[in-house]
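Reminder: ligand-aware prediction takes two inputs, not one.
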Amino acid sequence: MFRNMKIDIETVLDNDPAARSKFEVVFTYSGLHAIWAHRVAHWFYKRKWFTLARFISQVSRFFTGIEIHPGAVIGHRLFIDHGMGVVIGETCEIGDNVVIYQGVTLGGTGKEKGKRHPTIGNNVVIGSGSKVLGSFTVGDNVNIGSNAVVLREVPSNSTVVGNPGRVVKRNGERVGDRLDHTNLPDPVVEMLRDMQRQIDELKAELRREREQTRQERQEVRSL
Ligand SMILES: CC(C)(COP(=O)(O)OP(=O)(O)OC[C@H]1O[C@@H](n2cnc3c(N)ncnc32)[C@H](O)[C@@H]1OP(=O)(O)O)[C@@H](O)C(=O)NCCC(=O)NCCS
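Here is what comes back for the chain with coenzyme A:
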């Protein structure tokens, strides 16, 4: 147990450049407190002391703002940064070396029964505010962008962003036909350009008409 606690402290120091000392980490990192409380709650949950397990989880939620259901299975070296608003569901499974930021939900869609929460692979970063909803797998080495809403399986070695979440990078290569948002056509400018073109055409036609009238008048005078 103490070896695991030591690893948890080292995980914080490795992941957070702002963490200065073990002392500071132990006493001020609510993500760490939530993980430790979860270990105790999970121990009771596995022995079917469900209410006591839930009670520990809720006390931990009260102090840390992080709700981890006692049934959730979490791997080694999980780092919950800031943590406030994190919710991890009962049937969620989390691999090793995962980083979770504040406001993340690993939840269900409300439509499933039994296993209804996601399975997260190893070396996954789940950005702040993102929601991963449903009983699918998020592969290894996945980055989930802040505020993404992920509703289906994510292959390993990829980056998912947006709502609904879509894979924008796989094995380091950009994928999909995302629009080039910085070079989108501006409809107002396009319309003004079109009006300018029509005005130029009308001016040229008027000039031609005037020239023609002037020549006709000269011909009449010379007669
Ligand atoms: C997704 C993330 C992990 C970067 O992963 P990455 O694999 O390095 O991806 P890239 O930075 O190369 O971005 C790939 C594309 O996704 C876009 N993108 C990145 N993050 C995004 C997000 N959160 N929402 C929407 N689009 C995003 C990028 O603009 C880029 O688009 P482009 O290909 O059109 O230029 C990172 O952007 C992120 O969101 N991290 C979460 C950090 C966080 O929550 N911090 C809180 C600290 S308190």
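Residues 83 and 190 are 47 Å apart (CA to CA). The chain has two domains: 2-185, 186-223. We will return to this case in the review session.
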